[in-house]
Amino acid sequence: MHGRPRYPRPNTGDPQKLQAAEQRVQLYSRLTSTVLKRLQAGQYDKETLDLAARLLEQNPEVYTVWNHRKRALLATLSKGGDTAAEAVKAELALTQRALEKHPKSYATWHHRRWLVAQHVTSLQQEVDLVNRLLEADERNFHGWGYRQFLMELMQAAPEDEEAYAAAKIDHNFSNYSAWHLKTRLLKKVHHQSPTVTLDDLISAKSSAAAAAEERLVPFWALRQELELVTQAFYTDPGDQSPWLYHRWLLGCLLAHAQTGKNKEEIVSLLQQEVAVCKDILELEDTAAPDGKAASSIKWPSLTLAQLHELLCSVAPSSFDNEQTDVRLLYRQLQDIDQLRAGFYTDASKGSAKILVQSAT
Amino acid sequence: MVPPEDLGPRAELLTAKHAAFIKKFAENTSNFEYFATEHFRMSGVYWGLTALYLVGHLDDMDEDAIVNWVLESQHADGGFGGSPRHDSHLLYTLSALQVMALYQKLHLIDADKVIAYVASMQQPDGSFSGDEWGEIDTRFTYIALLCCALLQRPDAIDRQKAAAYIASCRNFDGGFGARPGMESHAGQVFTCVGALALADSLHLLDRDLLCWWLCERQTDTGGLNGRPEKREDVCYSWWCLSALSILGRLHWIDQDALTRYILFCQDEEEGGISDQPEDMADVFHTFFGIAGLSLMGFPGLESIDPIFALPTKIVQQLKPAAPSASSQSSEAPDV
Ligand SMILES: [Zn+2]
């Protein structure tokens, strides 16, 4: 359904191709019927399971066939020992063959998770496999989800996971999946944040409980992250991944502000970020303006507007006059980024708060 | 690919061609795709029929044959398979109910059995498994809530816990993933926003932040992508738009540009809409393209409900159901 070119139209004219296509249909439908009929009759012999495997290699989303393979395996697993281990190994190999051709097959990923949850296989081997996959396709969210599942099983240290995310980002600043992982891990690495329980969420009257979770990553860590993300800005100021992460970091700073402590430090960090945005805008200004420049100006401009708003809310008395700058920035953004003019209009009226409100 | 100034024959929505395309796909049983999609045909039928309804061509299909086929796909456990030869799954249980709702034949279904099946999938943490094999995904929470709403049994499952589980999947960008800790994805966002709406729990999300992330999905082509730095694709026209529509922020994207992008993905010869311009059209993208246009009020189309993913007229006839988009209007005050 995705990425198949419209032209040339399939099977137009050429009778040989038409015949081949017809044959393919017949073979596939016959294979499907045989496999489903036998499996539904509880016929789990080797020949049937081999046919089932052939079907899945062609079309790994046929979930019913995976279901039957699980039922067949449960019988073998109950025998335990080497027999069980061998059977799981063979099944893992089948899912691997399917995933090589169809790395986004939900049914296959789920089958593999189910197999691993039987606890008769090496987890490290799984980690190696998924790491290889994420090298080939660094944004495959099935792969990231599977990796997370493995890390939970292995009770991996959040510090190690953070190092993995950092290496991915180091390799490519544009890896949003890795930035995302970082936001999850920073909280875990710095145990200071109160953990939000399910009961908290159930009883929550607003998103305050979730916001509480974002609280209090220590200053030294935030400073480190701001430095990293600044490097990414200078590499490509038009890349949205680091800017979205940056918004979250500012939210973490705001959470500090709400404790009423360390106000001076917060204000100085925010002013440092203002300087970064202004510097990037100046650099882009001197570069020749072309199509790409629009997104390079957009992100620092929007961030600048938000920083001004944040400063006004953290230290109202000293930054009140920045409101005019904010309105000017949003007006510019309406021109630079016309697709989202509606958002900037609301933002300039104060009815689209993506930073100040989100952390309160 | 940015659509050209002059869209040529694609400047109009080729409704008759799309209707013919859907009908042809359903009836062409010598096509490889026909067999290869058997395991999810229930959803295919739902996409096709809803698209036909929206363009005023529902009567093109054989209602009795379809209704009987849907009923045949229900199994002893109460759930529906993707077709009669396939196991029960929540995905196809919802599609089956949606098809029956389109035909106003929900009363033919043994609701108690369906409800028992759906409720049996809820886990102690509030999440839902897709079937007996334990795959957990926020999509299934939406599906369970919507099944209960369609059968007017909203309290058959623990809605509060279901909503709390969705909230636990909320990310730093305001979006939602498939499970706690997983990256935000516009498809999951649609299901999570729909789930929270059905569970009266929209206060658990950060409306402005999420909608900003969603409007950032629009690329220079006018089309929408599903995650940052990804290519645009017509199916996100529905997923991003329905969430924006539920949350009253459709005006944060450029609707003219998106309309042009969807129109440009039409196949003016064979009919149908594809994921990207000049790709092969399919029923899935034909539905999501038309549904997206419908949400934007495209002239001549029936309107679609962003929560139920069914025509508004059909949803209005379900009484007294859980909150639909028409009852919690887009003008609802911010929370
Ligand atoms: Zn698509």
What would the keywords be for this entry?
heterodimer, A: 360 residues, mainly alpha, Serine Threonine Protein Phosphatase 5, Tetratricopeptide repeat, 2 domains, 18 helices, 72% helix, 0% strand, B: 335 residues, Glycosyltransferase, two-stranded antiparallel sheet, 14 helices, 1% strand, globular, disordered C terminus, binds zinc ion, zinc (chain B), Terpenoid_cyclase/PrenylTrfase (chain B), Rab geranylgeranyltransferase activity (chain B)
* Sequence of strands across the biggest β-sheet of chain B: 1-2
CATH class annotation of chain B: Mainly Alpha
Query: Given this structure, which CATH class of the largest domain in chain A is correct?
Result: Mainly Alpha
Extract low-pLDDT stretches of chain B. Answer: 327-335
Tell me the number of strands of chain B: 2
Number of helices of chain A: 18
Give the termini distance of chain B in whole angstroms. 38 Å
Order of helices and strands of chain A: HHHHHHHHHHHHHHHHHH
Biggest sheet features of chain B: 2 strands, antiparallel
Structure description:
Chain A: Belongs to the protein prenyltransferase subunit alpha family. Chain A: This is Geranylgeranyl transferase type-2 subunit alpha. Chain A: Keywords: Prenyltransferase, Repeat, Transferase. Chain A: One of its GO terms (cellular component) is Rab-protein geranylgeranyltransferase complex. Chain A: It comes from Apatococcus lobatus. The complex is a heterodimer of chains A (360) and B (335). The model of chain A has no long low-confidence stretch (mean pLDDT 89). In chain A, helix 17 packs antiparallel against helix 18 (341-348). Chain A is built from 18 helices and no strands. Chain A is elongated, with a radius of gyration of 27 Å. Chain A has 2 domains: 14-121, Alpha Horseshoe (Serine Threonine Protein Phosphatase 5, Tetratricopeptide repeat); 195-360, Protein prenylyltransferase (Serine Threonine Protein Phosphatase 5, Tetratricopeptide repeat), CATH 1.25.40. Chain A has helices at 15-40, 46-58, 63-77, 81-101, 106-116, 123-136, 141-154, 158-171, 176-189, 198-203, 208-213, 219-235, 240-257, 263-286, 293-314, 316-319, 323-336, 341-348. With 360 residues, chain A is an all-alpha fold. Chain B has 335 residues and is mainly α. Chain B has a single domain (8-331), classed as Glycosyltransferase (Alpha/alpha barrel). Chain B is 45% helix and 1% strand. Chain B is built from 14 helices and 2 strands; from the N terminus they run H-H-H-H-H-H-H-H-H-H-H-H-H-E-E-H. Chain B has helices at 15-27, 32-36, 41-54, 63-72, 90-102, 111-120, 138-150, 159-167, 186-198, 207-215, 235-246, 255-264, 283-295, 312-317; strands at residues 304-305, 310-311. Chain B has a two-stranded antiparallel sheet. In chain B, helix 3 (41-54) crosses helix 13 (283-295) and helix 5 (90-102) runs parallel beside helix 7. The longest helix of chain B has 14 residues, at 41-54. The N and C termini of chain B lie far apart (38 Å). Chains A and B meet through helix 1, helix 3, helix 5, helix 7 and helix 9 of A and helix 2, helix 8 and helix 10 of B. The complex binds zinc ion. Zinc ion (ZN) is lined by residues 233, 235, 275, 285 of chain B.
